[in-house]
Amino acid sequence: MVSNTKEAALEQAIQRHLTGTTTEDLTNQPPPAEQGYFRFGQPSDFNAQYAIDTKLFWEFLETTQGKELAKLKDRSPVDWQRKILERFDRLVKKNGLLHLLKKGLAVDDAAFTLMYAAPLASSAAKVHENFAANIFSVTRQVRYSETNPGEEIDMVLFVNGLALITVELKNAWTGQTARYHGQKQYREGRDATQTLLQFGRALVHMTVDTDEVFMTTKLAGPATFFLPFNKGHNEGEGNPPNPNGHKTAYLWEEVFAKESLAGIIQHFVLLEGKSTDPLAKKSMIFPRYHQLDVVRRLLSHAATNGVGQSYLIQHSAGSGKSNSITWAAYQLIDTYPASASVAGGKALDQPLFDSVIVVTDRRLLDKQLRDNINDFSEVKNIVAPAMRSADLKSALENGKKIIITTIQKFPFIIEGIADLSDKRFAVIIDEAHSGQSGSAHDNMNRAMGAGDADPDEEDLQDRILAAMQSRKMRGNASYFAFTATPKNTTLEKFGELQPDGSFKPFHGYSMKQAIEEGFILNVLANYTTYKSYYEIQKSIVDNPLFDTKKAQKKLRAHVERSQQTINTKAEIMLDHFIEQVVTPKKLHGKAKGMVVTQNIEAAIRYYKALTKLLAGRGYPLKALIAFSGEKEVDGVTYTEADMNGFPESDTRHKFDEDEYRLLVVANKYLTGFDQPKLTTMYVDKKLQHVLAVQALSRLNRSAPKLGKRTEDLFILDFFNDVADIKSAFDPFYTVTTLSSATDVNVLHEIKDALDAVGVYEWQEVEDFVARYFAGDDAQSLSPIIDTAADRFNHQLTLADNDKIDFKIKARQFVKIYGQMASIMPFEVVEWEKLFWLLKFLIPKLHITDPDQDMLDELLEAVDLSSYGLERTRLNQDIELDATPTELDPQDPNPRGYRDGEQERDPLDDIIHTFNERWFQGWGATPEEQRVKFINVVNGIRAHPDFTQKYEENTDPYNRGLALEKMMQDVMLKRRKEELELYKLFASDPAFKAAWSQSIETVLRTGV
User: Fold this and answer.
1) Greatest alpha-carbon span in the chain
2) Which of 65, 577, 690, 799 is in the most buried spot, having the most CB atoms within 10 Å?
3) Within its chain, how far is the Cα of 990 from the centroid?
4) Confidence (pLDDT) at 409
5) Separation of alpha carbons 582 and 500, rounded Å
């Protein structure tokens, strides 16, 4: 006899696990009703009109709520069942089954509970008894259709006779998969107009085979959108091998367990939409597996291990972090200690946490939390925003359980809170990065800690130790940090310490899995780099010596920020955007682009160049700019609001409108900005490490309704090369770990080096700290800081290099101690004291680069004679490394000024080297290039159309067209003499644009 590998075998495996037996085993026998198992549903008991198992529905009501039923039976002895069913059907069509499962069903003066909630740890015995009275059941081969009575759904799960989940099973061993055949069957072979399959009835529809699970909450024929419900394997899609059975056994063994299903209904499933919207316009949110898993693991760990824990959740963009945070926040307020010995637990019948504080910059998260928690909680108005310390105090006093604030506002909110040590907090940090790695997080800890004690009871030493201890992760708070891109300091602060000394995230959902599952797009699939090349012409006769490396860096910065350079790049960007995005009508004509620039000045110059080009060419689209504060460029002060013509707060929403297609930024909107219509990015900025991943990931948001695909994405990079981008993305593609803890002994070495210079006396350090923590007026602190600063700046007559070395080491000390103080297992009082003095002293330490004046002269000594670009990588797909990445801790070596023999070259040599490195457009020497260039310019000036159609023409658009035609004529005429030049002109759009831009500049300036 061989193994049964047919589809029915999978049905039997699921049915046997849930009920203890199978349909085949019970031929001509009554089904069992053992306690603890699912009940065995009969297909003949299913009512297709109402989508219920009538036998179990009435059994549940009769058994648990006979008194309520009696009210209707007495008044309507003949049709009491019809009254209940019609009332049920009407309300399900209006509000959905989820609403009735949570709120119950009212018929006349009778009120029915349709599902008893799962008990909490603190629940009374009656709550446990009620939950046990729920009837969970499973039925195979359910004939769901009234119009085609022979059509069957493979399996349906019920609670108290009400259909919860439909399941179509496929057998991968016979070539039938859930990924293709199961989804196809739901889309094309199932009638979604029938009651069971209408939106709002069953909570979710699943298609399952032995390898994978997919789900949808709304069947819409061919437009039905399925999501994977898989664990993930090798940091990617799919499921891992299961040594005890099928890969998908977790579905029926874990997810379909009674307590699990009840918990999903009570705490996870959401019906999203306006209260005024009809049911059909709303959306049902069913948790993906990793969301369900991370929340449940967090809750279980907190209940078992108590307060004072830290958790790092490394979830990629596209993981649904907003919902995960919402579910975690809501359920943490109802988490109870698993035992009386749990750290921070007050009593078994009291919640572990008094309040949950959500620290986020997501403006929509506040509303999302409020709306979702109103659905979950019987007690309303438990969410409050807090932007000031008074708000936080008030929220706590008024019993608000979830308090939302921003990363920027949090340090200010907690200032002035005297004592919260009797409270227990769960602090959820959204996108945990460096903003939570240093002093802002220290302020958080100080507020959550013991606060300032009575000065009469504590001496100075105790108060310093208390301040240090408050910088620890407090025993009265647990931290839950969500991020896609953890740095080494984030891993060390929030990660789980392993036996080998490394640190790992508590839970992960990788970028690789998100891409493979289709939740985000691969932004590196179409990556094109451009390499700039220059011709720098010396404008002075002198030939001074300069530090070669610094001079080369300065020259490039000078060229890149010039308006001529920016105009050339802006033209390439706009040509590409019009030809490849606007004209093909990507995303139904709604696709947008982002221009990422070096700094605010460059952003302003790019914006002006792009708007001028748009106006000159008459394109019916607009650009916006985003930056914070004011910026003066060429003597004019600019703000985002003035340049865009509307308030800064409106930019995000305005950019969603169809007329605005390009957004120019420097740093603003590079992180946390979700705009699914973004498909194209033009990068003219050094991107590395976490910023590279965050910035380029602005493009990865999927937009199924607009048909957004990976092929629609395009990145044009003028600054970085492929290797740099790959090295930035690789650490966060799968899972990130930290090899070991930071060696804090470097602080001893740095302190010794700083002490030896003599900038401060230790008594001054003691005096400053004593006054600072005593709350003395700032005027009493200034003399101490100013005295030390004066020694550094004047009295000690330190050499420039020694000053640089001291300031570098002082900054390194403050950075490392500020990040490590909260997790060091011991205290060094002198480090804490020096930390506070240096924080205030560093800004007053003046240093000068000895070569700065000469480098400034360098810029006056050269002119930009030509500028061009060549494409070096075209539409490259950057393959990422799926190997888990192990980061190293912070460098344990003290840093400082590196003295040595500087490489100095005469100005002529620097310019020659610079041109040789960057000006490689074609094979001619610089002098030959100049001659060829001048010949073309003279040819255009001699063109018969030059005077009338160009020189005397006041219409910039027609002037541009005329110049383009004249240039084409001249280049064609000279193609035999200049074949190499003509090939570049005809075949490389970047070269052509740069060449044309340079010629236009010469013609315009009359050189």
Assistant:
1) 112
2) 577
3) 34
4) 66
5) 54
- DSSP result, 636-703: EEEEHHHHHTS-GGGHHHHTTSTTEEEEEESSTTSSS---TTEEEEEEES---HHHHHHHHGGG-B--
> What are the φ/ψ torsions at residue 169 (nearest 5 degrees)?
-105, 140
The model's pLDDT over 27-56, given as tens digits with 9 standing for 90+, comes to 777 766 665 689 999 999 999 999 999 999
Distance from C-alpha of 359 to C-alpha of 353, rounded to nearest angstrom: 16
**Which among 1000, 999, 994 has a CA at the least distance from the CA of 568?**
994
pLDDT of 365-374, one tens digit each? 666 666 666 6
Contact indicator for 903, 549 with CB cutoff of 8 Å: yes
Of the candidates 189, 140, 173, the one whose C-alpha atom is nearest the C-alpha of residue 7 is 173
Which of 689, 631, 627, 701 is closest to 664 using CA atoms? 627
Full-model pTM:
0.72
Q: Which amino acid is at 846?
A: H
pLDDT at 716 over 60: yes
Instruction: Tell me which range, 52-66, 552-566, 900-914, is most confidently predicted by mean pLDDT.
Output: 52-66
d(CA 76, CA 827): 77
Q: Which residue has the higher pLDDT, 550 or 456?
A: 550
Q: Give CA separation, 888 vs 103, 143, 247, in Å.
A: 52, 59, 35
In tens, the pLDDT along 155-191 reads 999 999 999 999 999 986 677 899 999 999 999 989 9
For residue 420, give both structure tokens.
């919260």
**What average pLDDT score do residues 734-761 get?**
74
| C-beta separation of 223 from 284 below 8 A | no
Contacts of 681 (CB under 8 A, 6+ apart): 523, 593, 594, 595, 596, 695, 696, 698, 699, 714, 715, 716
Q: How far is CA 47 from the centre of its chain?
A: 46
Of 173, 172, 175, residue with least CA distance to 213: 172
CA–CA separation, 840 vs 149, rounded Å?
80
The residues near 554 (Cβ < 8 Å, ≥ 6 apart) are: 855, 858, 859
> Do 416 and 389 form a contact (C-beta atoms < 8 A)?
yes
Residue-by-residue DSSP string for 393-420: HHHHHTT-SEEEE-TTTHHHHHTT----
**Per-residue DSSP letter, 498:** P
